[in-house]
Amino acid sequence: MRLTHTARSARNWLAGIALGTAVAFGAAAPQQARAADDITVTHWGVLMYGAPYAIARDQGFFEETGFELGEILTSSGGGTTVRNVLTGGLLYGETSLAAAVSAHLTGRDILIVNTGAATVADILWITMPDNDEINSIEDFVGKRIAYTRPQSVTDMTLRMSLDAAGISADDMELIAAGGIGDGLTMLQQGAVDAVPILEPIWAGQRDNYKAVLYLQDVLPRVAQTVGITTREFAETRGDDLRALIEARRMGVQFIKENPEEAARIFAEAYERDEEIMRIAIDAMLEIDYWSEGGFVYEDMDRKMDGLRLIDVVDGDVDWSAVVDESFLPEDLRSE
User: Fold this and answer.
1) N vs C: which end of the chain shows fewer Cβ within 10 Å?
2) Mean pLDDT, the chain, integer
């Protein structure tokens, strides 16, 4: 039987700042009731990272695995998610791999415990539908091409794509537009020629723009987000972390097996149109977006290559020093 909940989520879709909450109350234990755990998911209520958690909450998977879920909190980016976990006393957060690695390299008390979004292929570049001059990445030469912010994932993936296509970034004007909504406004006003967009925003805008660069057409897979905790929690709350990661995995499996029902649940959680969410979920399933939790270190190394390209990190990362696979189901651990 599906559990019901009260969905509260994004009020500002394009700005990427939202708050979604769901409080699950369990019966108090005879001796002592343990407080439910809040977790944080980057861009909860806005982008696609949160879908497995929304499904797991709705379907009772957290209760099934024994994890007491409190609120699902949002953040406006990976750095904020890391700070929420490290200083806010949260057990777990899903954040960008870049933010997790940056925290580790600066000596912060952090562990990566699972993979979230396994690819950056939810990002694409678009132009106005009547622009006949841009139809592919090769047509970016001599044009004004936007990304969001310096050292952002759109800055990184744009430069990685240009490198992969053998095109120099010096052959075009690269413009930091700000947020996704800011970029769309600049595109509509003719201030830039192409801008990045992500699902599920793209699912609702497909009739208004023309896609000119899908990242999966030019890049191999690049890991995007990971689950993090502190070393203290890893030592003292291991069973809860395993239960949480297993519940999220069940959410991913449910999406793959029941995309139509998943779209309905996800739309309710994010307060969005169900048809749009179905389009977005289908697109994510096509690119195998959600990992069940296991690590593909080759894809993580590619992310580091991209981060060095935009001067976010310097040198290599010893994954064994920051990744702990012991909280994954055994079949997902590296051999």
Assistant:
1) C
2) 89
Question: Is residue 249 located within the same domain as residue 188?
Answer: no
Q: How far is CA 220 from CA 19, 166, 239, 333, in A?
A: 33, 15, 35, 22
The reply to whether 114 and 227 lie within a common domain is: yes
- CB neighbour class for 31 (10 Å; exposed up to 12, middle 13-18, buried from 19): exposed
Q: What is the mean pLDDT of residues 52-66?
A: 98
DSSP state of 137: G
- CATH code for the domain in which residue 321 is found: 3.40.190.10
pLDDT tens-digit series, residues 223-237: 999 999 999 999 999
Q: Which domain holds residue 144?
A: 123-217
| Among 192, 193, 188, CA closest to 205 | 188
Instruction: Estimate the crossing angle of helix 259-270 against helix 274-286, to 10 degrees.
Output: 120
**What tokens appear for 288 in the block?**
């195998």
Residue 64 domain flag? yes
Instruction: Give a yes or no: residue 31 inside a domain.
Output: no
Report yes or no on whether pTM surpasses 0.85. yes
Distances (CA, A) of 87 to 37, 112, 235, 333: 15, 16, 17, 29
Reference 196, options 221, 179, 208, 216; nearest CA is 179
- Given 217, 243, 278, the domain boundary residue is 217
pLDDT, tens only, 73-113: 987 666 677 877 877 789 999 999 999 999 999 899 999 99
Does 133 share its domain with 115?
no
Structural domains counted in the chain = 2
| Residue closest to 49 by CA, chosen among 153, 125, 186 | 153
Instruction: Tell me which of 83-87, 101-105, 166-170, 244-248 is least confident.
Output: 83-87
Of 62, 246, 219, 213, give the one whose Cα is nearest residue 138: 213
E-state strands within 177-241: 195-198, 210-214, 225-229
Q: Is pLDDT of 14 > 50?
A: no
CA distance 44 to 20: 6
